[in-house]
């Protein structure tokens, strides 16, 4: 895992951010600006053969890591990279708890990674959201 916050404008990283921030260019641009302007937001990448194939963005609240973004390039999915990134960041940050909010598209990833899932209901019209929590034992 490497800190890639200073490389956030690279096309590969923007493409990965678009998978989790939404395909709207305005949302992706806002997400890039948020990482550039907000010191508390961190962005790390997972490299294979010199190429960033996964990203994980988070904010710390004392010993709690709040996942903001996580994505793996489509051709590298289902290989455990997402869970590996979460575990690496938990070790790096010494987190006691990891939380995330997601929708139907990613809730199974969090469930299979050992997170407890709570429905938040329909926060946006037609979109059910979930709170995902993982407690470090």
Automatic annotation (TrEMBL):
InterPro entries: Acyl_CoA_acyltransferase, GNAT_dom. Residues 2-137 form the N-acetyltransferase domain. It holds the Pfam family Acetyltransf_1. It comes from the Bacteria. The keyword S-adenosyl-L-methionine does not apply. CDD domains: NAT_SF. Keywords: Acyltransferase, Transferase. Transmembrane segments: none annotated. This is GNAT family N-acetyltransferase. It comes from Chengkuizengella axinellae.
């Amino acid at each position: 895992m490497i800190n890639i916050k200073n490389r956030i404008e690279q096309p590969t990283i923007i493409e990965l951010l678009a998978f989790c921030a939404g395909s709207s260019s305005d949302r992706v641009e806002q997400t890039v600006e948020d990482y550039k302007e907000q010191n508390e937001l961190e962005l790390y990448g997972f490299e294979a053969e010199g190429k960033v194939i996964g990203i994980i963005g988070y904010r710390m609240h004392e010993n709690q890591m709040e996942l903001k973004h996580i994505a793996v390039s489509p051709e590298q999915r289902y290989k455990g990279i997402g869970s590996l990134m979460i575990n690496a960041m938990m070790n790096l940050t010494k987190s006691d708890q990891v939380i995330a909010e997601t929708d139907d598209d990613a809730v199974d990833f969090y469930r299979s990674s050992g997170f407890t899932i709570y429905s938040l209901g329909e926060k946006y019209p037609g979109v059910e959201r979930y709170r995902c929590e993982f407690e470090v034992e």
